[in-house]
Sequence to fold (210 residues):
Amino acid sequence: MTSNIRRLEYDEVCDLFVALGAHNTPAEMHGLLAGQLSAGRRMNYSEWFREAKEFIDTDSDFSKDEQEQLQFVYMSTLTALADDELGFYPLLPDDEADIEERLSALGYWCQGFLAGFALVEKNIQDLSEIVNDALNDLAAIAQVGVNDNEDLDDSSDNDYFQIVEYVRLAAMHIFLEYAVEEVEKEDNSIESQPDEYLSAQSLFKSRKLH
Fold:
C-alpha cells in the first residue's frame, strides 16, 4: 500500500499544540501514537481524541478544526507506517532547526514510542529478537542529548541523519512484524468476511523491509 496522504509537518502540529496550550512536545505525542500503532493497536477517532486529550492535559473539548487536525495526525501516521515505499518519518523539527533542538526532539520521540509500545504489548518476554533489539536501540537513542560542555562538530548533522534513518526503519520494521502476526492469527477465521475486508487484511503478507 502506497501512501497518498501528504507528509505530516512538525510546524503544523506545533501550531496546534500552541493553540491547545500543550506543555508536551509534538515529537513525543507522535512517538506515543506510532508506538501503539506499531504494537498492533488501532483506534477510532473518539479513542484517539481521548488519548490526545490525556497527553495534552486539557479538559476542554476539541473544536471541529482541532479534531480534523488530530484525525490527520492519526491517519497520516498509520498510513505512513504501512507505506510500501517506506515513507514513514518520525515527526521532528526540520533541518533548519538547531541540532540541539533536533536531538532533544528525537529523544522525546523515542521515549514516546517506547511508552506507546509498552501500553499495548504487555508480554515483553515473548518479543522476537528483531523487535527486542530494535526496542533496546530506541531506548539507547531516547537518552540522546547534548552535553553543555561538548562542542558539536561538522559531523553532528550527518550522525543525526543516520540515527533518524535507523529510527524510522526500526519503527516500520516493528509495525511490519505485528501486522504480519495479526494477519496470520486471522487467516483461519475470516473466510466469511466481505472481499474488501479480506483485501485489507492481506496487505502486508508479501512486504519486506529493505
